[in-house]
Amino acid sequence: MKLLRYGPAGKERPALIDGEGRLRDLSKAIGGDLTSATLSPALIAKIRKLDPRKLPAVKGKPRLGTPVGAIGKVVCIGLNYADHAKESGMPIPAEPIIFLKANTAITGPNDPVSIPRNSVKTDWECELAVVIGKKAKYVEEKDSFAHVAGYTICNDVSERDFQLARGGTWTKGKSHDSFAPIGPWLVTADEIKDPQDLSMWLEVSGVRRQNGSTRTMIFGVRKLVSYVSQFMTLMPGDIISTGTPPGVGSGIKPPVFLKPGDTMRLGIQGLGEQNQKVVAAK
Questions:
Q1: Which alpha helices (H) appear in the chain, and where do they start and end?
Q2: How many CA atoms within 13 Å lie on the side-chain side of 155?
């Protein structure tokens, strides 16, 4: 299934995509919204039993929000693609590199991305995002997938100067408002046979910058869910953004960074596309 939320920011309603590609409203059928507080294996099972033809059709082309509302945290994995580590001139990590994005960075998949004040190196990163479906703490690798509701896309927008040259952790370069577009929808785990075999790409103003595949991940989804759960409790709706393939702006010679007026278009096989316009922060 493909689950999503649509409508004005802060007033989104849950929906699914039927077999003909139409949006069908779920709010009455599930008695509310699809959020971190309501997401569960039981809810997914309930939705699966519904007849989409009996759900109200959504007219027009509404704004899309994040596929799960009130996301608690976005856990990101750095340098998790062997070819990206190579382009960055950094060694293969011995263990996953973990950092967090502030949840105020979270935005819809097609909302504008704003460049922070005093930014000189705002960059892009197309990433496979794992959506946690049930509480995960000290999970063994063999049990990881039982805690995954599904998958979506995250653009891990990054200000490289803030991230790498301003001291401290990477979080300060990753957390500006709009630096975590998530969506367009949550594809339930049963529809993704192998999350380690998905092609992915990103374009900036019509120029293809990233072409990659989850096959080159250093640490796969099964490992990451287990690993992260050793250090923090993962709750329903939490996101693990699993790293990016090569082709980021900082890896181009000479480097290329985002500027107001640019557009980003990115996608992952089976998970849809995102489209963002780049603007200056107010």
A1: 27-30, 41-48, 82-87, 160-164, 221-228
A2: 39
- Torsion sign, CA atoms 7, 75, 280, 70: positive
What structural domains does the chain harbor?
2-54 (no CATH), 74-280 (3.90.850.10)
Which residues are CB-neighbours of 21 under 8 A, at least 6 positions away? Answer: none
Give the residue among 47, 5, 73, 54 at the shortest CA–CA distance from 237: 73
> What six digits make up the tokens of 159?
């200000």
Residue range 46-67, pLDDT digits in tens: 999 999 999 999 999 999 999 9
* Separation of alpha carbons 204 and 258, rounded Å: 8
- Residues in contact with 122: Cβ distance below 8 Å, sequence separation at least 6, in sequence order: 115, 116, 157, 158, 159, 160, 257, 258, 278
Provide the whole-model pTM. Answer: 0.97
CA 171/CA 97 separation, integer angstroms: 12
pLDDT digits (tens, 9 = 90+) for 163-199: 999 988 899 999 999 999 999 999 999 999 999 999 9
Give the separation between CA 47 and CA 15, rounded to whole angstroms: 10
Let me know if 179 is exposed, middle or buried by CB neighbors in 10 A (0-12, 13-18, 19+). Answer: buried
Instruction: Write the CB contacts of 238 (distance below 8 Å, at least 6 apart in sequence).
Output: 36, 71, 72, 73, 74, 75, 131, 132
